[in-house]
Amino acid sequence: MVYRRTPAVQARLDAQRARIVQGATGVLSRSGFAGLSMAAVAAEAGIATGTVYKQFENKAELVAAVFETVVAREVDAVRAAVAQGDVVARVTAAVETFAGRAMKNPKLACVLLAEPVDAAVDAQRLEFRRAFAASFETAVAHGVAEGQLPAQDSSLTAAALVGAIGEVLVGPLVAAPHAETVIPELVAFAVRALGAHPKTL
């Protein structure tokens, strides 16, 4: 007979996995990808290193799980921000949410956006960017449909905005300046790049 985990056992393992991912997120937030090790994560989570390896085969697999968890949370926040309003309001909310949340945890944001990582983790990063671009695309497509923006490829525009904003954030995140000096400029850039009609500004 094939062994099947009981609901109680599965719940315990799921909770243990979540604890490890949370621990890894804490280490990444302080030390980045370069400072992450299975032992450091175990210490952060208050468990044995062997327990971490039972859940994750290697560092790349663990970081991929962190990306999946953190990105889902961040994308949900941006998606909610672009749910209503005209195109300028939606794009402003998207940029402020994306950049503002990044500035609150700059080291982790640098890991998500730019720090050199394993190839498998880099693939997760691309998914991260695509997910954010999809939220921007929704706002741009709405603006075009409502006549607030000139005709354009909303998918291409969204990808360009996410790439540009991510590139700008890498420097500010490392230098950790005051958010108020960075985010308004990013919003203004995004609105100009979209070609919003003056009446919508």
TrEMBL record:
Keywords: DNA-binding
InterPro entries: Homeodomain-like_sf, HTH-type_TetR-like_transc_reg, HTH_TetR, KstR2_TetR_C, Tet_transcr_reg_TetR-rel_C_sf
DNA-binding region(s) from the entry: 37-56
Keyword Cell wall biogenesis/degradation found: no
Domain HTH tetR-type, first and last residues per copy: 14-74
PROSITE patterns assigned to the protein according to its UniProt record, in alphabetical order: HTH_TETR_2
SUPFAM superfamilies for the chain: Homeodomain-like, Tetracyclin repressor-like, C-terminal domain
Listed name of the protein: TetR/AcrR family transcriptional regulator
